[in-house]
Structure formats: structure tokens, C-alpha cells
Amino acid sequence: MKIGIIGYGKMGQLFYKLFENHGFDVLINDPKTKSASFQRVIKDSDYIMISANNEGNKKILTKLAKISKNGDLSNKLIFDISTFKKEIIKYYNKFSSNVLLSSIHPLFGSGMKDPKKHHIAIIPISKSDGSKLVENLFSNIGFNTFYVDYETHDKIISLTIGLSYIAGISLNKILTSYNKDIVNKLSGTTFKYLRNHYLSILNDSPEFVDYIFSQKEVKNVLKNYRKILSDLSDKNKRNKILNEIYSNSDEKEIEYAYKKMYSCIESY
Amino acid sequence: MKIGIIGYGKMGQLFYKLFENHGFDVLINDPKTKSASFQRVIKDSDYIMISANNEGNKKILTKLAKISKNGDLSNKLIFDISTFKKEIIKYYNKFSSNVLLSSIHPLFGSGMKDPKKHHIAIIPISKSDGSKLVENLFSNIGFNTFYVDYETHDKIISLTIGLSYIAGISLNKILTSYNKDIVNKLSGTTFKYLRNHYLSILNDSPEFVDYIFSQKEVKNVLKNYRKILSDLSDKNKRNKILNEIYSNSDEKEIEYAYKKMYSCIESY
To answer: Which of A52, A70, A189, B52 could pair with A7 in a Cys bridge, judged by C-beta atoms 3.0 to 4.6 Å apart?
Structure first.
């Protein structure tokens, strides 16, 4: 079986290796790399994965939907790996019904090493759902997979990705005003652990970060975040917040996280 | 040589074990534990470490300063492990000059396992400095030690501890409105790593967290943080911030942090 990858960025490269290591023939199409032509990829591949950036994915899906009208994509599986699904899913409506469709979200980045430690969310496409094929493909490689509707997906992804960038970018910014060496010296374990977070997120491009911040639901998360910081500045409200957090906290979970943090920091 | 520990909380217990494992006789005084009397600890110990909470440390130093006037603490070493130094250092001025004095900040919590991976900051006390003894004591145990004046110490600690709690508490609060299971499922590697941070900080008591937020310099850090989040809500200002961060970033440092994050997450 042949898999075509359209869009050979960090994630495209990661999946290329994974598919190859699992014995698939893999074709690549990307304007930036010596690669197969778009025509050849869609003709020869049984499965086509779309992994360009957000605007690129929309263009590719538009192009493929047109082609599907001629019957040239019959029984092929097409799926994308876009971060947010609401907009992307509209593009699948334009496909001919003899194409199998799905949309996935790999919950990891290009640093992924062990599939067994990671999840892939599968968002079914009502039009002509090919999610079962996607599920088989990725669970055979070793990933944990689960199904989720696009609305829940986008709401929670806006939260988890949004918070990762809101916290990370603001920490990076505030630290530009301080001397790095003395900050590093006077960092406890907790801040050392956190530094690793705010440095890691810079592995993504500023364009991607801005794209995240531009999402409507991420804007709402940022608004809530600002309200909470305002409340934390007020002693009474702060104590209410601390009460709420501590009374809902799970001692075992905290102990586990704390141990994990130390083992992470001491292993380097 | 005997070491007395006054205040047997999490940190007191950690140092008790460390000192014992390194062959010292250790005496403990704490109202909450079956322990030696205050009188016995100060009479029999050569070194006295003060590790109660902030208000407790002030009371103990006041008591010891009085006793020092009778010459009963001659040539003994006294040091505390308070988080902030500006206020505490005033209490050392009241001691008789035949007592050796110092103040330290262990840059780790009770989860510490390997001293070689951690730092202790030493803040000299001009009155009658015993920092050399403290330095020998802790570097023999295996810690990395360095000297810093109390003003620099407090400024940078307000930043590193302040940011750890500002980020951690706000993340905990925002997540109280969401279903934990779906958030866990739809978390990428970066957010999983961050979750470990915001859960870990709950290992500290709410009283300690409130004490941190109540510090004047932490209040300023929170103010700056709020200004940055407000700027991040504005597309133009956000792009300026992203430009500044990315143009000052160190590619190797980012790559290292990113790898470290994955190895932390995949090791569990």
C-alpha cells in the first residue's frame, strides 16, 4: 500500500519516517523539496495525508475536491492533520462521495520518539467517513487513538494549546528584561522545569504562534486568563481562588507530578 | 560536630536526613514533633539551622539574638533558609558579635534527591559573617554553592518564584471550569509537560502561595505579567513581542529544551 504525503514540514517528515519504518511505500509532494509531482502522488497513493500549513491545507483540499468530481480519487482515503477543525471540515463537503475522508490531530510534535506514549485524535467526517482506516493505520504503528467530534476538539484544543502559548510567550517576554545568567542561578527546581517549557515552545514558528493567538476560542481563553490574573492581584479574591483549587485537588496526583518534575530535572 | 535544626517541616526533614547521612549528630526542635528542647538544641549544637515558616523564623532569631547577649552562643554558627532575605537580615543585626551568622536559600524543595544537581545561594551577613562555614558544610555534602547579595537575591527570586506561582495558580484556576478527562485526552506533549508544573506547585501550602503573592516585588512581577497579556491580545503589539522574543532566542538552547521535554514526557 502506498501513502502520499502532501506538505513536507516538520510533521510531514516525522510521518514519512514512521510510515517507511512500518513498511509502507511513501510518496512526498512539497514545492520546497525534490519530490514527486502532485499528479503522481494522488494517482499512485491509496492514502493521502495533507500536512501543509493551515492555508496550504485549505488550498490542497479545494484542489482535491475538484479532482474527485472526475472519479479520479475513487476509494482513496484522504485526511489532514490541521490543528483546528471547524473551518477545515467544510472543505470535505465539496468532495465526491466515493472518496473516503477523515481528519486527525496528532497530539505531539516532531520530537515524538515512542508512538505508544502518544495519542492521535480522530475527527470523523460525516460525508463519507474513512476514520476506521485511519484508526487501523495509526494503531498498527503503535499510537493510541480516540474519536472526538470537531466542536469538542476545537474547544479543548483552544484551551490546551492556547494556555501553552499564553503562558510560554508571556514568560519569554517578561524574561527579556532580566540578565539570563543570574536568573538561571537563582532558579529553583520548579522554575527550571518551567523554563524548559517556555524555551520548548519557541521550536514552533512565530507564524504558527500568531495563528494560534488569532483563533477566536484562544482569544476567549486569553480573556479568561487576564480576568484570573486580575483576581489574583486582590487578596480576598486570591484566597477564594486558592481555596477552590486546593479543595478540588487530588493529593496523589500532586505527589506524582512533583516526583516526576524532580526526576525530569535531576536526569540532566 | 553537632547540628541543630529549629523547625522540622518539609525542608527541616530533608536536611535532617542529609546531615545524618553525612555523619553529623543532628538535634531537632519543633513544637509539633517529639524532639529536643530549644535550650538543649542551642546549648549542644555547633551549627544551628532555622527552618520554620517566615514568621516563625523571625521569632526564633529574636529569641536567639537575646540569648547571644549572655555569650551563650559564642562561636556557634547560626543561619536560616527563608525564601526572602530583606526583612530577615535585619534580625541578624541584633546578635552579639561573637556569633557567626549567615543566610542561605536552598534552590530546591523537599523532592530533592541528588545534591550535585542543585544549588544553594549564600547571602553573607556583614555583622559577623559565617558564610565560609556554611559553604564548606554544603559543598562537602555535594551541593553547588554561590554567593549573592540580599537585594539581587530578592529581586530575582521574586521573579522566578513569582512567575512559577503566577503561571501555575492561574492555570489551575482556569482548568477548574473544564472536564479533566477530555482535557487530559486532548493534551499535546507541551501541555502535558505544563500540567506537571501546575500540579507540582500545589505541593506547597496555600499559605505559602499567598505569602509569595503578598511580596511587594512579586506584586510588581504580576503587574508586568498582566501588561504583557494585555499586549498579547493586540495583534500589532503581539507581533512586536514575537519578533523580540524570536530574534533574541538561542536555537541550540531551544532544541535542547525541546528534546528534554520529550524525554521527560516519554519516560513516564
So the answer is: A52
